[in-house]
Predict the 3D structure of the following.
Amino acid sequence: MTHGPNGSIGAHLDRCKVDRRQLLEFCGGLMVAAPFGLALTSVTAPEALAEEVAEADRVAVIWLHFQDCTGCSETLLRTSAPDLGELILHLISLDYHETLMAASGHQAEAALEASMERNLNKYVCIVEGSTPMLHRDEGAYAKIAGKPAHEILKKVADHAAAVISIGSCASWGGIPSTPPNPTQAMGTAAVLKELGVDKPVINLPGCPPNPYNLLATVLQFASNGTLPALDDEGRPEFAYGRLIHEHCPRRAHFDAGRFAQRFGDHGHRNGWCLYRLGCKGPVTHAACSTRHFNEVPDVWPIGIGAPCVGCTEEKVAFKVPIFEKAKISDAEPPAFYPSVEEEAGEIDPIATGLAGLGVGGLIGGTFVASQRFSRSPGDPACPGGVEVEEPAERSWEGPEPNEKEGKGS
């Protein structure tokens, strides 16, 4: 198999003496993060996935920063196991990243140009942060090396094999686009469309998104040159195909009508549903409830007792107030459970009396049915039983039955 200018992932791992166990652990985590909807994880075991990953090209990545907080880069590196953070940089060839690269100034720009030329139409362009479009030609709100942000984006995206918008800001504008949007911040896909650049764009919204979503997307492209199936908003279905609510560990409390009313109250301390505190889980598509951050259980908002803010949804995040209840239409509790907004009823004295009469009769009947009766005092077969008096001997009026039968014969 012929590999690209960066060689195969397996060869690079061997050259850097990376332990195979680290790769297997990563592949196991990848299969958990994307168990369906991803061609790469259609294999049945981490060992088979590791073999496929090792044979794949080590894809060159050019990572651009615009209006962002660098949180998406942080989530890629701030793992609980430093070995995984190192492994991530082995799986991809990160040729340009303004925050992580050692070069700066003219050297950084030279590295960008060299990577684009060496991997022409084969590299992946990753964009972090929204692109300001107000006074864009002057670069009034974002300029790097003397060039406006949109100009850099157009040049790099034009020669990329695919473009990935990582984080909510790059996907659809995020926090910078919040009304009144003073810089006319836009998501990457919208900017490229306005600039006339026709390239496949994959959105990975989240504030921040899970790093496994990015790596799964890049590795599938590296292994077979395809991209995962996308939903109507350009998000990979394997990561955004289901609502958080469907797999939320507090879902049972929602169905049973148990809701925390205030932070720190009895329900909140005991893990009850956070819907009334503003949780947007019922309207948010993401895999946060099944794939937590930093390989630590419960490291995600709901896991630490905070309501989901819907950061992957353009119409929810940073537009609907955090503690305002989301409007839901398809996640109501079943009819045989209390509703989300249960109205208090009144006690009917007649119904109470009838219920008491019924319960009393049931208790009395149960007591009688539980007793054992005997006609013999001290009957050992009926210890503690109730003695029953022998019935009086019955007397017949007229002849005995046998005699009557005899006379008639």
Q: What stands out?
A: The first strand starts at residue 60 and ends at 65. Confidence is low (pLDDT under 50) at residues 403-409. Residues 352 and 358 are 10 Å apart (CA to CA).
